[in-house]
Design goal:
The protein is α/β, with parallel strands linked by helices and 233 residues long. Helix content is 18%, strand content 33%. The longest helix is centred in the middle third of the chain and has 15 residues.
Length: 233
Amino acid sequence: MKISPGIEAIGTALWFSKEKTLVINDLHIGYEESLHLKGVLVPKMQLELIKEKMKEILQKVKPDKIVINGDLKHEFGKVLRQEWREVMHFLEFLLASVKEVMIIKGNHDPIIKPIADKKGIIVINEYKIGNTLVVHGDELVETKAKRIVIGHEHPAITIREGSKWERYKCFLKGKWKGKELIAVPSFNPLLEGTDVLKEELLSPFLKDISDFEIYVVGEKEVLPFGKLKNIDQ
């Protein structure tokens, strides 16, 4: 689904066709281990699901570069043993498929650099793709770029039909200080996300989003749903 000139939503990733760059965010690898430490037992399937999603995307596009836009890992101030192994494994998986991987530091990534250094991957605070600035989205920035892409929010919407309801990840596209703003959903299939129709939003970029357009991530394709204010709640 074309979401902006030269930019396509593929699954929960954003594809910049001219630059052959794929942007993903909010993988939160280590989420399962964090739950286990709290006594919540869930099947250890997160990493394999993430890899399967990436394989599906790589069958559709052939990026030269993958930009991980923040929150690659889940734990804030430490690296859990399983988390370290799984992050390393995933980075090796990506590097076997593309020429370059870059990590934009998210609020869950204060100590991501030692992991990235092991694989020769640079960690940065933002990245420019043409006229687009990619930042995690947990803090506001000043930029002359015409477009800003953020993660952090994990946007989703709940769609109801009669007594049935289901939550879907979604992209948001609107305006922030005259610039086009695109919010990208979490790449982790286990994280449902924030229902933007009724839950409090996290990113300071997303205050009044009533005029934002929604693109819902379905099983096989991304679908335009119109403006948020026109969706029945």
